[in-house]
# Entry
Amino acid sequence: RFAKIDPKTDLPDEVKWTSPKFETVTGPPAPMASDPDRQTKVSVSFLFKRITDNYENFILKMLGNLLTHGPSSPFYEALIDSGLGFDYAPGTGYDSNLREGSFSIGLNGTKPEDVQKVVDTIHETIARVAEEGFDEERVESILHQIEFYQKNVTASFGMQLVGGLTSTWIHGGSPVDLLLLNQTIERFRNDLAERPIFQEKIKEYLINNPHTLTLVMNPDETYLEKEKEVEAKKLVSIRENLTEENIKKIIKQASTLKDRQEKIQDVSLLPTLRVSDIPKEEITYPIVNEMFMNIPLQVLDQPTNGITYFRAAVEFATLPEDLRVYLPLFCGVLTDMGAGEYDHRELSQEIDMYTSGIDTSPSSVSHHSNLDLAREELYLSVGCLDRNLEKMFHLIQTVFLSPNFDNKELLSTLISQRMSGMQDSVTHSGHAYAKSFACSSFNRSHYLKELWGGMTQLSFLQKLSRSEEIDDVIHKLQTIAKHLLNKTHMRASVVSEANSLHHVKKYLSRFLDSLPGSPEEMEKDTIKKTSQILSPSDFSQRTFFPLPASVNFVAQCYKTIPYTHPDSAKLQLMAKILSNCYLHTEIREKGGAYGGGASLGSGMLAFTSYRDPNVLPTISVFDGSLNWLNKNYFTDQDLVESKISVFSDIDSPSPPSAKGLGEFRRGITAEMRQKRREELLSTTR
# Structure
């Protein structure tokens, strides 16, 4: 029997300020910045009350979304549409993770001389919204998003649910009340009908709140050197104050650490699964492939909780090669610039009101059996509550038939915003950028992935942001739309519940009827051979991108074999063994990097390190992988653990929205997956 105890984890509230504060700091310049004069960051933050009042917390989360989410939000219009900055600063929005909530609104890409203007604009916008409030439709669009994601079944639904309860729970709030979302929304609607609840909260938390911090960060070219100098002086000071006994103790500790790093761990002490626990047969589900109005349609009947997911793919059959570098920009601005009768703010609000969001992206997928072939497509995905099917297809139809790229100022802002986002991501995902570039010389698919999402695309966006030829960019986007936004080379996929499929096909047929083009007999795999585009002399075997950072991201790639090759499964297991038994020890534990490993995907064996103090030593470790394998340093148990690790990914829960995705996008059938499963299970040392 257990009795309740007081763990004494209660924290005191922050001491409230009696007046606002203003601070200026410096930081490293943005990596590969296209405009060195626009690297200042400005942020204004407000401390709120405890997060333990669940209803109050819900209102403040709603308020944060209303103020900042999407181009129809007041702060987007005042700060980004106005050209004061490229994008929101990190941390923008309402934060309820700590005991007391906070709200921050900030801007990236500001000129130093505009700092006060940005701060004034923030406070003016707050004052204006406190007087005017929000449109009813905007409030409803946010509520719709809450309802959709409440019903949307995801693979990590349980973890997300518990994660959402944690902050409030550990600080003394009721986790049970948080689960009663429908009751909270009903109470909110009643209160909103009786009084201007958001305007009241703005005045309470954002206007009459002295606990406010304005923080400005200016770039300093010597920031990293100063950091190194401070660290060096600190180390000298520590060394000078060490006694002989301290030195001997440190040497002994270092020796002990090295011995522990070299020692083989006795993992038999740990509980583990066995290969025999892994099911021999893959769990399958019915997929219906049919021709619908002369286009290939994949249909899946799944328990979607009243949601329909629609996917479409349009091949780049007629798109000129020189326009393909513009595809990420085309997809990124397609729903951000307005369409048909909607301007960009109205379209954003309509999409939020009736769908999960209309997402488009260029896609290049290596053939499952021939790495020199690739499927190149515009990929679209969207979901909606079943009651909104007609509106969802109407919105997709509007975007396809009447995209609007004519707003020059808005397009320039969106280009700068995309560029700024990619620049900021380099220091967080440098290993992915390094891997992308390293793989790009091997085949058509990886060449395009680099062109669309790697350093090549970042360089292109930087050049575009400096160019004054915005009319030429608009013309290219319009040309892409004429080539792609039709049904000539289209195929589609629907995931829904059986009782909704009739309605889905009804509105899908209307959508297809409205589109230009005539569906043609498509080859199952787009024929684009590597030799048409790539020449080994076009690429360097070793490339270095300098970044203003004290760490590196290293990648080394090898072209291997396609998915259906019988040895591909063995390479996948080998990559797991190398990651767990060799690279982790050498790169992270000994080399001091944050992480490192090997992976196999789309016919590429890639070695990567993350936030790594080394470069050449890491490459030497990569080069030593084959020698390590040949000396049989790994055991039968290591192979067992690699299989369990691989199958933990393969057999991880798959939400209804992801069903059929592998077959639709990559052409990998259930039979292919079962064969690979058998090859993985039968692999021996």
Remarks:
- The mean pLDDT is 91.
- The first helix runs from residue 54 to 68.
- The two ends are 50 Å apart (CA to CA).
- The longest strand covers residues 374-385.
